[in-house]
Write a structure and sequence with these properties.
mainly alpha, 2 strands
Length: 493
């Protein structure tokens, strides 16, 4: 009846209301990122109020495009470097010799909007298509995560967690030696070209010059800002992509519909050519979106592993400091009780992770071996186990990327247990309990800020692939329909 909406129309209205909400969230995420100070705020409260003025004086919400998002990212010197270092061209070149590795089989798919099957399965069995789609999405997400894990483990030098029981070949040095044919990175003062090596997170560099330490601290701050921007922006990427791509396809439909009108008969060929050009432009834009999403996913994984490496090292070192031989020899009851409680907690943690504590090994001895796996060899001038008064941490303190966030917020509640239970770390200890089930990497698990953001980036990629499949199918149907109309007009003439 006139004035009444069909169920399909009501569903479309509901979806577009959600779309508008996602776009509004994206706008706020960008504005918060732009208003955030690049350095530590001063003690002057007026500066803080001024930084929020941009949020309160906006009276309209723009629809962001890919070009605008890339321009926003490139305002940061470190993000500008990361987009080149972890771009498709550079990553494929550096990983070319390792493409046969099982976890790198889908490396190119990370950067592409590959085809996806949309038609429901055919056959005698009655299968719920929604269940099939759900299982397909779980499989797709597992492959996406597995590929990112393989890239990240080889891209982060010194990361001791690996696959297939063999130490990986690290390619971090090659990644940051960007070839001369790629655009050079502008330095912070904009006067000279800075090498991409300056953007590297060298977590073992402790003898840096004051200038290098300033660069490292600046990189850490810019990486932190990028993570929080992606955390706020990634859930809205499907809506941003839909708005931009569908606007282009709406123009394609208008041109094709106009070509079928009698008054435009003389311009029919020209209108169809314009529509085809617009369709090709939209298809190219989708490919560029896929490349950007893939690049951001790899950049996020690089930051995640570097931050996790630092946090695990600091956690292991603090655990070892609670169980030093000097503390074990103390005679005061309260100090002895504190030592025994700390040893009990550590013993339980290692047992939960599958380590053998029945062969004479102490919890502290295992922790020292694990710490050596994350921090490397000790200098000769330090104590035997590297944890005594002379055994300072070899990790770079200037790369504490998230000093104000607990590791459980970034990586999930059981972050330390998840890492220590890895088979590759157990192989570092002299004795292992073979009866304990070894940990298995679960590509579906989503933990902490990093896990949630990676999942939303995958959602944007899969949504992009679905949208592309639908639009290509619709374009083929339109082509068949135009062929039928052309044949009819020929018969009428």
């Amino acid at each position: 009846k006139p004035g009444e909406r069909s169920p399909e129309d009501r569903r479309a209205v509901a979806l577009y209301s959600c779309l508008i909400t996602d776009l509004r969230r994206a706008w706020h995420a960008v504005r918060v990122h732009e208003a955030a100070p690049s350095l530590r705020p001063s003690d002057d409260e007026s500066a803080a109020r001024a930084s929020l003025a941009a949020l309160t004086t906006r009276d309209r919400m723009p629809l962001y495009t890919r070009q605008q998002i890339e321009a926003l990212l490139k305002r940061s010197r470190w993000a500008q470097a990361a987009l080149v270092v972890f771009g498709k061209e550079n990553v494929e070149k550096c990983f070319a010799a390792h493409r046969n590795t099982p976890n790198l089989a889908g490396l190119s798919r990370i950067y592409e909007a590959s085809d996806i099957a949309l038609a429901p399965p055919q056959g005698p069995e009655v299968v719920q298509f929604a269940d099939v789609q759900s299982e397909a999405e779980r499989t797709d997400f597992a492959e996406w995560t597995r590929t990112l894990r393989g890239i990240g483990r080889m891209a982060c030098h010194g990361w001791p967690v690996f696959d297939d029981n063999k130490v990986p070949t690290y390619v971090e040095d090659d990644l940051f030696k960007v070839s001369d044919d790629l655009p050079r990175l502008k330095s912070s003062n904009g006067l000279t070209n800075a090498p991409y090596e300056d953007a590297r997170f060298d977590i073992f560099k402790t003898n840096a010059t004051p200038k290098q330490r300033d660069i490292a601290r600046s990189n850490a701050r810019q990486a932190r800002k990028l993570v929080w921007l992606l955390h706020g922006l990634a859930p809205s990427l499907p809506a941003i992509i839909h708005s931009e791509i569908m606007a282009m396809h709406y123009q394609v439909e208008l041109l094709r519909n106009a070509a079928d009108e009698p008054q435009f008969e003389n311009q029919r060929t020209k209108l169809h050519d314009l529509a085809d050009e617009m369709y090709s432009a939209a298809d190219e834009e989708m490919a560029k979106w896929a490349t950007l999403i893939g690049t951001l996913s790899v950049v996020l994984r690089y930051i995640k592993i570097k931050a996790l490496h630092l946090d695990v090292s600091f956690a292991l070192r603090e655990a070892c400091k609670r169980l030093t031989p000097e503390m074990a020899d103390r005679t005061k009851p309260e100090e002895k009780k504190e030592y025994l409680n700390a040893e009990k907690e550590l013993r339980q943690l290692l047992r939960d992770c599958g380590y053998d504590l029945h062969g004479g090994q102490t919890p502290r001895a295992i922790m020292v071996e694990l710490l050596e796996a994350f921090e490397g060899k000790r200098d000769a001038g330090k104590t035997a186990d590297g944890i005594g008064a002379k055994g300072g941490s070899p990790m770079n303190p200037d790369l504490s990327t998230f000093p104000d966030n607990a590791p459980s917020t970034l990586f999930g509640e059981d972050w330390l247990k998840d890492i220590l239970a890895r088979r590759s770390l157990k192989l570092r200890t002299t004795k292992r309990d073979g009866a304990v089930r070894e940990s298995i990497d679960d590509g579906i698990s989503v933990n902490g800020v990093f896990g949630e953001t990676e999942q939303w980036l995958w959602t944007a990629n899969r949504g992009l692939r679905k949208l592309g499949a639908v639009l290509r199918e619709r374009n083929h149907a339109n082509a068949r329909q135009r062929g039928t109309k052309r044949a009819r007009r020929g018969v009428q003439k």
